[in-house]
Amino acid sequence: MPTVFGVALLGSGRVARARLRELDERYDTRVAVVASHNFDRAYELALPIAAAATNDWKAAIARSDVDLVMVCSTNPYHAPMARAALEAGKPVSVDYPLALSFTDAEQLVELAYARSVVLHVEHIELLSAWFETFRKALPRLGRLHRLAWRNVSCRPAAPEDWTFDRAHGFSLFQQASIPSRIITCVGQATWIEGQESFSDEDGTRFGRRATHLRFGFGADSIGEIQDILTQIDEAGPVAELEAVGEGGTLVGRRHREVWYTDPQGITTALPITPRSGLFGQDIAAFLDAVTGQGQPYVSLDHVLAALRFAAAAERAVQRGRRILVTTGVETQTDCT
């Protein structure tokens, strides 16, 4: 096993740049090549670190000086890039989502196990300080009755902003952080139903997406997702996760604070230990897995469970029916 790993960085966007900064701080990695469909952007990243630049990602993976692959490209490329790396026998780290369908993700996991090659999927939302505080406080609530995610994300979209493009996957595949956090809190859902609407559409692009889902978990508990992505300023909750149980209520707000209300109605702010460098932590976990020095912070079972939830939600929206999450079977209850 090499003392310094040669890395193929596939992508040249915001996340690729963040990973490049973290990799440049490590003594055990060297970016050998940057690949992007936009060669000029690949060259811009590669030149200061004396790496090669290419617009051919397959050739980047095949290079003899590449030991590891990091996939930071747009969503439709995640699965084919990961597959090529695994087939080449090279450990691969993939930004979520692993794939844009549950079937493709499952096949990639099976391939990784069959080839005994490390497949790591980034889920840095599980490492964030506020969510760690929220998760650790959940036992205070005892049996959960309800879990709700509510968010309105308002921002202008540049033409290259893939989040405003339906070609980059169903909303919960694009935002795999939502089902990832949900199943971390409550385990796998039993059923899901809901609707999704778009406005200001131009081909596959849109100006506003509104996702409204309900799901069941546990014996008879109910969850809710209300997530809006829009280019126009719109009032509403901003990144709020709420859990209600026998022992009170937890609310995480704005990705930076958590509040606990006890059964007597007394509300207190829970302390949050600041954390930074989440991509650095993710890269360290990937390299620990490659060298056999540690366990991943997110298992492939978790990755598949999150995408199983997303796939059931996509089918529920398409069919207008309640879907059983673990089987994908429709029920006769129309969504309202």
Sequence of secondary-structure elements: EHEHEHEHEHEHEHHEEEEEEEHHEE
- How big a fraction of the residues is strand? 25-35%
What is the CATH class designation of the largest domain? Alpha Beta
Determine the structural class based on helices, strands and strand pairing: alpha/beta
Contiguous helical run count: 10
Structure characterization notes:
This protein is α/β, with parallel strands linked by helices and 336 residues long. The protein folds into 2 domains: 5-122, Rossmann fold; 126-276 and 308-334, Dihydrodipicolinate Reductase, domain 2 (2-Layer Sandwich), CATH 3.30.360.10. 32% of the residues lie in helices and 29% in strands. The chain contains 10 helices and 16 strands. The strands form 2 sheets. A 10-stranded mixed beta sheet has the order 14-13-12-11-7-10-9-8-15-16. Strands 3-2-1-4-5-6 form a 6-stranded parallel beta sheet, with helices on both faces. Helix 4 (75-87) runs parallel beside helix 5 and helix 8 (177-186) packs across helix 10. The model has no long low-confidence stretch (mean pLDDT 94).
Question: Brief overview, please?
Answer:
With 336 residues, this protein is an alpha/beta fold.
